[in-house]
Design goal:
Blueprint: E1 2-6, H1 14-23, E2 27-32, H2 41-46, E3 47-52, H3 59-69, E4 77-80, H4 86-96, H5 103-110, H6 112-121, E5 129-132, H7 135-145, E6 149-153, E7 163-165, H8 168-178, E8 184-188, E9 193-202, E10 205-210, E11 212-215, H9 218-221, E12 230-233, H10 240-256, E13 261-269, E14 275-281, H11 289-297, H12 301-311, E15 323-328, E16 337-341, H13 343-350, E17 354-359, E18 377-383, H14 386-399, E19 401-404
Parallel strand pairs: 1-2, 1-4, 2-3
Antiparallel strand pairs: 5-8, 6-7, 6-8, 9-10, 9-13, 11-12, 12-15, 13-14, 15-18, 16-19, 17-18
């Protein structure tokens, strides 16, 4: 099987998918605007060949370049693990007559208004919503959804440029930020615990599923700098609301037409016990979630995905052994990191359960926390008991501090 991967060196977990595909016997080819020398080693080791293009977004140039590159090469599958390139992948499938998500189906994942319409027709519980392209239309949509409401871009990833509006005053306050967005979706605000449902499917059958919990909910985490957001991959998925979520997410996958590949879904469990769908993307989750999956079951999700795509199966044993938490840290102050406090006593206290520390080193420049969930680094841990996992995670969130100046 010949597989073309778009941007095989980015984001940071993509090289491991490339390596996994190669290890499963696929001939993996890449196209991207990263210079070949900038591609991380796991991807370079897995690639059979790579086409470097100066501008990945110029379809009128990219398609002829691919045709001329290796004219005798027959591509059987196009993989895209990066949200921004999903529509490009769909256009390439059409241009080269390759199975997979078409441009029309891709819009169902990228355009939140279309997504809601499809899922409503399938009977999936969604927030009330309306699309708007002007301030007047936003006002009309808010009349329909009521307050509180969420305003978010029609197309986007994560919670970037997403705002909660509790009143008309909040709407007036965020108007300047909304000017740069061509089209938005206004949605009923759902309160409850926010989870993910991440799947690998083949021929419409889920071969692997994982659930992660956000603490706090992602919108809060992406809007308040002082927090140390965390994601917890859960060991025990036996509770009824997890089973309801699985059924709901399976319906969503079928309705939107993703019968093969990775999917990242988000959903809520409300205080009233209702399960409500959030969003879906036809790609793996970000935020180094692959590592959380691996440490939860002591297996290799990258290889599992590759085996599923190449051979239609997952032969690894999947046993949920641990809860795994990743705590993202944001430095206090601006500029460069000049001190890291609190880790030494926590290593002595919880060292047996800490898996990884990946904090920015002294002297490194702070990252923009609004642009990356990973922020200024993270600490990862695991434990078979959920309460203990949360206790350790809270200890790290409260007592580890990065200082910048």
């Amino acid at each position: 099987m010949n597989i073309l991967v778009i941007q095989p060196g980015f984001p940071n977990e993509v090289p491991y998918f490339v390596r996994g595909l190669a290890r499963q016997g696929a001939a993996v080819f890449g196209i991207g605007d990263q210079p070949p020398q900038a591609i991380p080693e796991p991807a370079r080791a897995g690639l059979r060949d790579y086409l470097y293009v100066k501008n990945l977004w110029q379809r009128e140039a990219v398609i002829p370049a691919l045709r001329q590159w290796r004219p005798d090469l027959k591509i059987h599958r196009i993989d895209c693990f990066w949200e921004a390139a999903m529509e490009l992948a769909a256009d390439l499938r059409v241009a080269f007559n390759i199975p997979g998500l078409t441009p029309e189906k891709t819009r169902g994942f990228r355009d939140k208004h279309i997504m809601r319409q499809v899922l409503n027709q399938a009977g999936v519980r969604n927030p009330r919503q309306a699309k708007a392209e002007s301030f007047a239309q936003i006002e009309a949509a808010l009349e329909f959804t009521g307050y509180p409401a969420i305003v978010k871009p029609v197309a986007g990833a994560g919670s970037a440029d997403t705002y909660r509006l509790n009143s008309r005053q909040d709407f007036e306050r965020v108007k300047p930020a909304l000017k740069k967005i061509a089209a938005v979706v206004v949605e009923e605000f759902i309160t409850g615990t926010e989870y993910t449902f991440d799947t690998i499917s083949v021929n419409g059958h889920i071969l692997f599923a994982n659930v992660e919990r956000y603490e706090p909910n992602m919108l809060i985490a992406r809007s308040q700098e002082h927090l140390s957001p965390m994601t917890i991959s859960l060991r025990d998925l036996s509770a009824p609301h997890f089973q309801e979520a699985r059924a709901m997410c399976t319906t969503a996958l079928n309705a939107l037409g993703l019968d093969r590949g990775f999917a990242h879904m988000e959903w809520f469990h409300t205080e009233k016990g209702e399960v409500v769908f959030g969003e879906i993307a036809a790609r793996p989750p970000g935020g180094d979630a692959g590592m959380l999956m691996n440490y939860t079951s002591d297996f290799d999700v990258y290889n599992a995905y590759a085996e599923a795509m190449v051979h239609g199966r997952i032969s690894q044993a999947i046993e949920r052994k641990y809860n795994v938490a990743i705590i993202f840290k944001r430095a206090k102050g601006n500029g460069r990191i000049h001190a890291i406090e609190g880790m030494q006593p926590l290593r002595k206290k919880w060292g047996a359960h800490i898996l990884k520390e990946d904090l920015l080193p002294i002297g490194a420049k702070r990252r923009d926390w609004r642009q990356t969930l990973i922020s200024d680094g993270y600490i990862m841990l695991r434990h078979p008991n959920l309460d203990t996992t949360l206790q350790i995670a809270d200890d790290i969130a409260q007592n580890v501090t990065l200082w910048a100046r």
